[in-house]
Amino acid sequence: MTPSGIAPNGRIQTRFGDFDAVQTHVVTFPEGIPGFAECRRFVLIQADELSPLTCLQSLDAPYPSFLAADPSTLREDYRPELPVPDRAALGDPAGSPLWLVLLTLALHEVTANLRAPIAINPDTMIGRQVLLDDSSYPVSWPVEAR
Amino acid sequence: MLVVTRKRGEAIVIGDGIEVHVLRLGRDGVRIGISAPPHIAVHRSEVRDQIRKANATAATASSTSAALEQLRSRFTNPGKRREG
Question: Among A39, A55, A107, B20, which is disulfide-ready with A45 (CB 3.0 to 4.6 Å)?
Fold first, then answer.
């Protein structure tokens, strides 16, 4: 059994709990994500226990677990534009991609990475972490102070 | 690493269609211009490094179930939303 992955009973283990594989979708990141270049396959877990948040759990070593949010629930003025190279890498999605921002649950603060959101082409389930040129979007945007 | 000397106005070519031009030389910096095919993403390395670091933190930062519950409740009660 891997530290995180799909257990024999079909449950997916994450840092945020175990979830039924039935509730999930696999997203392929052909280039991994920065810092985790070998992590090509992630499961997108949208479970009741996490709702409205999403867990992105890698199926490849070192099996990182991320908590993510729909950015429109964080900031109404957040309108990431998919850069041309990223649009091509996602296979030219017809419409808008599915956007998610990665959250960091530190001891005293929760932050969202608005500078490098995750874009997913819902038709092909290909994903990519997009580095936005707009430096007004912070890497660590405070979601709330605790 | 390949090291080449270039003068202002000169360029190097990488593969098929990537060109790096030396535009201006200053005391503390060099202004360069990069042209690349549309499918090639070009970024400052420090931005990429910053994202790497942020991802590593996001994948390991402490996450108690209490903190997760508090965060979820914030999303379902958006009254306390902060302006960015």
Answer: A55
